[in-house]
Amino acid sequence: MTEEEAGKLIAQLRNREISEFLIKREDFLSFRKVLVAQPDFKQFKGIAKHGGDVIYQYLEVPRS
């Protein structure tokens, strides 16, 4: 996954164009690099799945 692709997914989730998306294990590190640089990083919730995949959702209220 490229940084551009990760940025597009993050923007779609933030803008409510999608409610969630799945990141495969092999794309996790490249995706996370882009995600942690976001100013609203704490509003993204990652739900780990069996096998290393993660489902991301966007929260109205930031995580603590």
Describe the structure.
The protein is α+β, with helices and mostly antiparallel strands and 64 residues long. It has one domain. The protein contains 2 helices and 3 strands, in the order αβαββ. The chain has a 3-stranded antiparallel β-sheet with strand order 1-3-2. The radius of gyration is 11 Å and the shape is globular. The N and C termini lie far apart (28 Å). The model has no long low-confidence stretch (mean pLDDT 96).
List key phrases describing it.
64 residues, 3 strands
Topology (SSEs and partners):
Blueprint: H1 3-14, E1 20-23, H2 28-35, E2 44-48, E3 54-58
Antiparallel strand pairs: 1-3, 2-3
Concise summary:
The protein is α+β, with helices and mostly antiparallel strands.
Number of helices: 2
Q: What is the number of strand segments? A: 3
Mean pLDDT: 96
Query: Which secondary-structure class do the elements indicate?
Result: alpha+beta
> What is the element string, with H for helices and E for strands?
HEHEE
Strand content: 15-25%
Largest sheet: 3 strands, antiparallel
Give the CA-CA distance, first to last residue. 28 Å
Total separate domains: 1
Helix share, percent:
25-40%
Flag low-confidence runs. Answer: none
| Multimeric organization | single chain
Rg computed from alpha carbons, rounded to a whole number of angstroms: 11 Å
Global morphology? globular
